[in-house]
Specification:
Length: 273
Amino acid sequence: MGLRFHKMTGSGNDFVVVDGRTSPASEWPTPRVIAACDRRTGIGADGLVILTPEGPDAVRMTFFNADGTRAAMCGNAALCSTRLAVRLGLAAESGMRLATDAGTLATRCVGPGDMAEINLADFAVPARVTGIDPIVGERAITLTTVGVPHLVVRVGDVEAVDIDGRGRELRRHPASGPAGANANFVAPSTVPGGPWLIRTFERGVEGETLACGTGTVAAAVALAAEGEASLPIEFMSRGGARLVVSATLRDGIATDVWLCGQGRVVFSGEADL
């Protein structure tokens, strides 16, 4: 028998999720994570998640990027973990405590489908970055940490962004911090009243992902702080699914932060990894 796994997607950001009761995080060295996430010779994913019970309605989410590095937090992985924890009988759908390396979150399932909500920790409102000069098409660049560091780049057209070139440059820019940051490019909808559009170059994946939950949260708060939109704010991910961010801004801090989005099981199976 191979390893039992679940392939999940959060608005296009995809994960291999494993039950930690049968395969704990200690059994996942970097080469094994990379092999599982490989899209040609493995299952294929942007990251790998280990779910482990930590008491009544308490679950730990251990998250690894596709390159094998461990990350403190991933919003879409948390949405997926919330949905799968209920399916595995680890917690109640009405609410649970989800422990991450960035802290413990309150999370819950929403409705009978595949939506979930996570209550993120307070964080500093994104601040304008010094040391990065905007290029043509970029209007403002801000930086904050929502579990992991995020640059938010306000652009006029997300389709015009050189996501591999400019995204990679900003991800490793010294002004992004010693570990670098995800680079999120945000623009208004091309349809009046439509959701904001976002594209993300994600560290650890080292390329564009179809959605980034915490990056979407950072973008929403940046837009609200700049007076460009009012919370709650709806976004369309690159994967075509919608995410909604609500929060309260007070004295330079974002509080009562909620992210609502997809946590869908695509398929389950066994693999020799």
